Amino acid sequence: GCVVGLEKVADNVTAMQIAVECAPLAFAPGQYVALTLPDQKPRDYSLSWRSTPSLLEFFVRDHKAGGASSFIARRLRVDDEVRFDGPFGTMTVDPAHKGPILCLAFSTGIGPIVSIAAAIADQNPEADLRLYWGAAEAEELFLPDDIAAALPLNGQLVLCADDGELDSGIVHPGSALDAVRADFDTLEGWLAYAAG
């Protein structure tokens, strides 16, 4: 494939788009591919909900510790050639489940989780789905309007950050897991998806 887009969606997160140069890639929401970048070892990246069979998108957090994520943030350029293998992974939509759905994501794990949530919305626009998304800092919660639009009509997006402010009403303080614990006494009957 060929890199066709590199967009900073947060201070430390890049949306990387790769055009598929061979036959279109058939994949299921929630799957990932192994990417080999120039001069880097292969690394697994989950496909975002904005991926198509001919244009793959990945959200990559720069850990600032070298390696592939730092390479993407600092050295990768549009028109660079990359190789990918896959898709891989079995965390995909369970069409047999008709009950409520809990989605839990941390940081860039939001990509595959929203892929699953969007597929559920396509199959059942009235699905009872709650998505809890957490990050260390509120500014790392990127594209919230796009994410909310991808959910079922009755879907709920709960944003959480360690530096969140209770008074803001937008971003809850603490982790997404803390928010789930506060909102639920039991998850009996719920199907859960988690990434990040």
Overview of the molecule:
It is a single chain. The protein has 196 residues and is of the alpha/beta class. The two termini are 25 Å apart. Strand 3 (32-36) and strand 4 (43-46) form a beta hairpin. The protein has helices at 67-74, 110-123, 144-150, 176-183; strands at residues 2-10, 13-19, 32-36, 43-46, 55-61, 83-88, 101-106, 129-135, 156-161, 171-173, 191-195. The longest helix is centred in the middle third of the chain and has 14 residues, at 110-123. The protein is globular. Helix content is 19%, strand content 33%. The chain contains four helices and eleven strands; from the N terminus they run E-E-E-E-E-H-E-E-H-E-H-E-E-H-E. A five-stranded parallel β-sheet has the order 10-9-8-7-11, sandwiched between helices. It has a three-stranded antiparallel β-sheet with strand order 1-2-5.
Task: Summarize the biggest pleated sheet.
Answer: 5 strands, parallel
Tally of separate helices: 4
Shape: globular
**Uncertain residue ranges:** none
Number of strands: 11
Q: Using only CA atoms, what is the Rg?
A: 17 Å
The termini sit apart by: 25 Å
Percent range for β-strand residues:
25-35%
Which helices and strands, and how do they pair?
Elements lengths: L1 E9 L2 E7 L12 E5 L6 E4 L8 E7 L5 H8 L8 E6 L12 E6 L3 H14 L5 E7 L8 H7 L5 E6 L9 E3 L2 H8 L7 E5 L1
Task: Give a quick set of tags describing it.
alpha/beta, 4 helices, 19% helix, globular
In short:
The protein has 4 helices and 11 strands. Helices cover 19% and strands 33% of the residues.
